[in-house]
Amino acid sequence: MVDYITRDGVALLQVNNPPVNALSHNVRAEIKNGLDEAGQDKQIKAIVISGKRSFIAGADITEFKSGSYSEWPTIIDLCDLIESSGKPVVAAIKGFALGGGHEIAISCHYRIAHEKSKFGFPEVDIGILPAAGGTQRFPRLVGLEAALDLIPSGRHIGAAQAFKLGIVDKVVRGDAVEEAVKFAKSIAGEPLVDRRTSQRPVMGAENAVSLRDAAVKLAMKKKKGMIAPIHCIKAVMGSLLPFEQGMEIEASEGFMLFTSGQMGALQYAFFAQRAAPKWSLPCGASFKTVKGRPIRNAAVIGAGTMGTGIAMAMLNAGIPVTLVEQDRKFLDKGVSLLKLLYAGSVSLRKITQDQCDAILSKLNTAVGYKSLTNVDLVIEAVYENMALKKQIFAELDRICPPETFLWTNTSALDIDEIASATRRPDKVLGTHFFVPAYHMKLLENVRGKLTSAETVASAQMFGTRIGKIPVVVGNCHGFVGNRMLHKYAHESDFLIEEGCWPEDVDMVAENFGLPLGPFKVRDLS
Ligand SMILES: CCCCCCC/C=C/C(=O)SCCNC(=O)CCNC(=O)[C@H](O)C(C)(C)COP(=O)(O)OP(=O)(O)OC[C@H]1O[C@@H](n2cnc3c(N)ncnc32)[C@H](O)[C@@H]1OP(=O)(O)O
Fold first, then answer.
1. Which atom in ligand 1 lies closest to the alpha carbon of residue 270?
2. Per UniProt, what is one GO molecular function of this protein (predicted)?
C-alpha cells in the first residue's frame, strides 16, 4: 500500500491504494513505518511523500462509520510526525491533494506540484472539517482570508492558484516525483525551523472579526442548512491562538460534527451518488458486461423549458445538438432563451465569451424532422401528451436511421406505449430530466420492457458524460423521483389547507437546505 524506495540518499514513500489513495488504516500504518525507517537510516538525508498515479484524496470515508479513522496512527499523528521530522520531507503532488491528503501535504516542509494537480478541503461537503490540524496549519500557510474562503467552501483550486497562495513551493510540468527527489537532495541538511507550518504566525489576523463575519454570511447563503461550514469557521478562528490551543478548538468543533446526523447523511449521499450510475438488469446484464454506444451528435424535439435545458446540458458537454420545433416562432423563442442563459453565464464570468461562442457553434436548428437522417440520438421533450408523443415517435422512426436511439423526456408517461409507436422498441427509453435540465444533477433513465441492455448502457454513459447522476429506474407511474415528490407535494398542500402561505412553506424548506421550496419548483414547470 505504501512503497518504500530509496534513491541516492532520498527515501521515497509512494502511496499505492487505488482508486484514490485514501488514507485507510493500513496506509497510515505503512506511512508511519516508512517515516520511522527513513528516520533511522543514516544514509537517508531527505524524504519524499508521493502517490502512485495521484497524490492522496483524503481520509478513507468508510472509516468514519466504522470508527477506524481514530485508530493509531491517525492522520493527526502522521501530520505531527512529518512536521517534526529532523530530515526534510517534501510532498510530490500530482492529481489530487484533498482533505487529509492536503493536510499531509501542508505538514511536509516543502511541496512540489504538477501543473495539473488540484488542492482542496472537501470535508465540509461530507459534514465534517479538516480535523487533522488542517484548520490550524492552513491559515498559517495562506493567511486567514484564504483559509476562511477555502475550508468552509470546500472548493478545489489548481496548482497555479495554490502557488500564488503559498501552498506550493514549485509548480512543474514534468514528473513531480523526479523533481521532488532532485529538490529533496538539494535541500538536505538545511535548517527546517521556518518550514514547520504550525510554527508560523497567521497573516490577516488584524481583520479577523470582519473576515469571520463575511465568511459566516457567505456560508449561510451558499451552504444553507449545513452545520459543517460554521464549525469550520469556528475552528479556523481558533488558529489565532497558539497552535496547541487551536488544535483543541479544532477537536471540539470536529467532535460536534463527527457525532452529527448530517455527517451520516452526507456521507451516505457521497457513496449513493457513486453507486447510482452502476446498473444491472434482471437478465444479468450490467455496467460490467455491456458497453454503451457513444453519442456523437443528437437532436432535441421541442424548444420549451425542458427541450432547451436538455440541449444546453448536451452542448455544455461538447455534443453537437440540433434543436427542432414544428413552428419557426417557437424555435426562435427557444434559441433566444438559450442564448440569454449563456449570456448570463458570461456576465457572471462562469464562462468566457470565447467559450460561449464555441458552445453555440455546436447548436443547429431545424423546423420539422426531415433533417434528422444522421443523428445518433433524438430526445423528444414536448409536453406530456401520449397521443402527441406517439405521433412524433412514429414519424422519427420513419426518418431516423435504424440505429438511432429515440428517447423521451417524460416524468410519468408509459415508455412501453410510446415505444409501441416504433419498430425499434429496444432503442426507446425514458430520460427524465429535472428542471432546470442544464443544472439539476439527477437523470432518471426509464427502462421499458423491450429496452435493450445496450440502450440502457448508452443512456447511463450519456448521463455521466453530460455531468448528471444517471439512475436506471423501472417503467411505472411517476418512476422513482416523482413518487417521492408526490408525498412531499401532498404534505406541502396540506400545510396550505391548514392556513400557511406558500412562501412560508418555501422558506422553511429552503432554510432546511433545499435550493428551492416546493411551490417555487412548481412555478418553474
Ligand atoms: C482523530 C482523527 C481525526 C482524523 C480527521 C481526518 C480529517 C480528514 C478528513 C478527510 O480527508 S475526509 C475525505 C476528504 N476527501 C474527499 O472528500 C474526496 C472524495 N473523493 C472525491 O472527491 C473524488 O473521488 C475524487 C478524488 C475527486 C476522484 O473523482 P473520480 O470521479 O475520479 O472518482 P470517484 O468516482 O469519485 O471515486 C472513485 C472511487 O473511489 C471511492 N472514493 C473516493 N474518495 C474516497 C475516499 N476519500 N474514501 C473512500 N472511498 C473513496 C469512491 O466511492 C469510488 O468508489 P467506487 O464507486 O468505484 O466503489
1. 53
2. (3S)-3-hydroxyacyl-CoA dehydrogenase (NAD+) activity
